[in-house]
């Protein structure tokens, strides 16, 4: 099993909590950052632009993605141009479709021609991957974010999907595949083994990095002690009947 230092896959911290992002910025294993409107809402952010510009005062030397939030492609285009101007390390997240299921391929191609670095997000099918790869083909560096974790949530194995995605993207050296929505630390090693370029990981999972290669006998004992100590703290007791002679 590889150590964290041996991994080729780049770990991006996925979140919108400023304190958490700045904490992860101090971690040399974290090579970039991603956000989305859902994470921002969860973090209580109400001023999108103010939050982004504030975090960019510190995070200047690693890629960071901010997502458009309109459902209209013309407005998405204007938002994307504005977001792209925030910094040379900024990637604009574009959803693969709008809420009406209309593909964003034309928008993606238009932005690529404008030189906008994009992170096309929420992909889950190979058909989407083919169209997005083609739309980004003549543009600058870009990410294709396939939600392997959500695919797995449906009972499907995401590994064949991710492998074929890499094959489709291979002719375009400027494109990198993101393994998005991982559910467990193991996904980092699965993505690395496949050759995925990036994996986006929430702070909850990142905090488990210390467990990598942990001795399993020691881990087992720690678990037993946890159960025992919690039972003591809870004051649990049972009335044990006298043995019948």
Can you walk through the features of this model?
With about 240 residues, the protein is α/β, with parallel strands linked by helices. It has one domain: Alpha-Beta Barrel (TIM Barrel). It contains eleven helices and eight strands. The protein has an eight-stranded parallel β-barrel with strand order 1-2-3-4-5-6-7-8, surrounded by six helices. α6 links the parallel β5 (about 120-125) and β6 (about 140-145). The longest helix is centred in the C-terminal third of the chain and has 19 residues, at about 215-235. The chain is elongated. The N and C termini lie far apart (about 55 Å).
User: Major β-sheet, in short?
Assistant: 8 strands, parallel, barrel
CATH-defined topology:
TIM Barrel
Please tell me the total number of domains: 1
Radius of gyration: 22 Å
Concise summary:
By secondary structure, this protein is α/β, with parallel strands linked by helices. It has helices at residues 18-25, 37-42, 48-55, 73-84, 105-113, 126-136, 148-153, 159-169, 186-194, 203-206, 216-234; strands at 10-14, 30-34, 64-67, 90-95, 118-123, 142-146, 175-179, 198-202.
What is the topology?
Elements: E1 10-14, H1 18-25, E2 30-34, H2 37-42, H3 48-55, E3 64-67, H4 73-84, E4 90-95, H5 105-113, E5 118-123, H6 126-136, E6 142-146, H7 148-153, H8 159-169, E7 175-179, H9 186-194, E8 198-202, H10 203-206, H11 216-234
Parallel strand pairs: 1-2, 1-8, 2-3, 3-4, 4-5, 5-6, 6-7, 7-8
Key descriptive features of the protein:
245 residues, alpha/beta, TIM Barrel, eight-stranded parallel barrel, 11 helices
């Amino acid at each position: 099993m590889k150590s964290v230092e041996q991994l080729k896959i780049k770990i991006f911290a996925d979140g919108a909590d400023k304190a958490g992002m700045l904490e992860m910025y101090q971690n040399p294993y974290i090579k970039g950052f991603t956000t989305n409107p859902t994470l921002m809402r969860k973090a209580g952010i109400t001023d999108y632009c103010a939050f982004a510009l504030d975090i960019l005062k510190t995070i200047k030397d690693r890629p960071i993605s901010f997502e458009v939030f309109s459902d209209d492609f013309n407005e998405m285009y204007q938002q994307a141009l504005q977001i792209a101007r925030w910094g040379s390390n900024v990637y604009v997240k574009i959803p693969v479709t709008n809420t009406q299921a209309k593909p964003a391929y034309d928008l993606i191609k238009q932005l690529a021609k404008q030189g906008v670095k994009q992170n096309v997000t929420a992909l889950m099918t190979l058909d989407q991957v083919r169209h997005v790869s083609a739309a980004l083909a003549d543009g600058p560096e870009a990410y294709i974010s396939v939600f392997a974790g959500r695919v797995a949530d449906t009972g499907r194995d995401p590994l064949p999907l991710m492998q074929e995605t890499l094959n489709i993207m291979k002719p375009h050296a400027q494109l990198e595949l993101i393994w998005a929505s991982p559910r467990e630390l193991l996904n980092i090693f699965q993505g690395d083994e496949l050759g995925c370029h990036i994996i986006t990981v929430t702070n909850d999972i990142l905090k488990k990095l210390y467990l990598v290669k942990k001795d399993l006998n020691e881990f087992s004992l720690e678990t037993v002690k946890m159960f025992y100590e919690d039972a003591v703290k809870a004051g649990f007791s049972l009335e044990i009947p006298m043995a019948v002679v």
